[in-house]
Amino acid sequence: MLELSDLRKRFAGGPDAPDGKVALDGISFAVQPGEMFGFVGANGAGKTTTMRIVMGVLEADSGSVAWKGRPLEHADRRRFGYMPEERGLYQKMSVAEQVEYFGRLHGLGPSAARKATADLLERLGLTERRGDAVQALSLGNQQRVQLAVALVHDPELLVLDEPFSGLDPIAVDALVAVLQERCRGGVPVIFSSHQLELVERLCDSVGIVSSGRMVAAGTVAGLRSAEGGTLRVVVRDPAPGWADGLPGTVTVAGDRHELRAVDADDQEILRRALKAGRVEYFGVEQPTLTDIFKEAVA
Q1: What is the domain range of residue 266?
Q2: What is the DSSP string of 24-74?
């Protein structure tokens, strides 16, 4: 398990900001083995700073990072896989040479690095491009190579900063399949993304950060249920005034009336709707992660 406790970080200021900028203001969360954790927030919210502290690129002013119940050390980080926000590939090196090189840096022998590279390039759809220079690839394919670099040494933890940025749907599916396979093997995965629908679909847990503070965290299902649901009723060609006195708002499109209400007596509304006309839809809709995000950072 990876556990972050009360991380704080302030960057030095300049003439226009003598007090500096608070990047993290008490960030805490934990990621369990085999869990996919989505880290979401606006640009500048603190996601990248948090990931850099986990990887040892930055040092926190205070707080702690623990791995498997003890303080995180340099030797632990060597067994992590990291995909930084700023991609770090050698543009003139071929795809296969690139991945093998990083495998060797992580301690793999020549044959092990070649085998791991071949396996990953096949999984990520890059086998036919193995001899191409990185600079000749599309941005999406460079993204795949960067992920292969993060995975080549079979890491115990994955920390990925915007891994889906710039990928087409086919590449997203390939990357998702690889990450889900690692999770099933017990590897914790942390990734940041602005694609909230993708986060909602993939992640077991989510943390929403705003201005360096964690403003919401928990399982996706737990966050959605905590927000409560909205009762939605659609009635076709109802009697005039059928919703008078009922809570909520009614929108009309032709002969189709839609009532939305929160904390309402659903049985009374259903009774009125059935009496008024033909009920096409009746149910409680949970908020999406996008809805929760907007509410949390407002």
Answers
A1: 227-297
A2: EEEEEEEE-TT-EEEEE--TTSSHHHHHHHHHTSS--SEEEEEETTEE--H
CATH of the domain at 189: 3.40.50.300
Sign of CA dihedral 90, 194, 223, 60: positive
DSSP state at residue 204: S
As a whole number of angstroms, the distance between CA 143 and CA 83 comes to 9
Nearest in space to 58 (alpha carbons), one of 10, 18, 13: 10
In the numeric block, the tokens 């340099």 are attached to 74
Write the DSSP assignment of 113-166 as a string of letters.
Answer: HHHHHHHHHHHTT-GGGTTSBGGGS-HHHHHHHHHHHHHTT--SEEEEESTTTT
Q: Which two tokens stand for residue 197?
A: 């629908």
Distance CA 106, CA 154 (A): 10
- pLDDT tens, per residue, the chain with 298 residues: 999 999 999 998 766 666 778 999 999 999 999 999 999 998 889 999 999 999 999 999 999 999 999 999 999 999 999 998 887 889 999 999 999 999 999 999 999 999 999 999 998 889 999 999 999 998 888 988 999 999 999 999 999 999 988 788 888 888 899 999 999 999 999 999 988 989 999 999 999 999 999 999 998 888 877 777 788 999 999 988 898 988 889 999 989 999 988 877 889 899 999 999 999 999 888 888 888 888 888 7
Checking DSSP bridges between strand 62-67 and strand 70-71, what pairing results, if any? antiparallel
Residues 201 and 239 in one domain: no
Distance between CA atoms of residues 164 and 38, nearest Å: 12
Residues paired with residue 252 on neighbouring β-strands, in sequence order: 257
Question: For residue 220, how many C-alpha atoms fall within 13 Å in the half-sphere facing its CB?
Answer: 19
Examine the domain organization and report whether 184 and 232 are in the same domain.
no
- Same domain as 58, residue 152: yes
Q: Which of 231, 271, 277, 229 is nearest to 257 (CA)?
A: 277
- How many domains does the structure of the chain reveal? 2
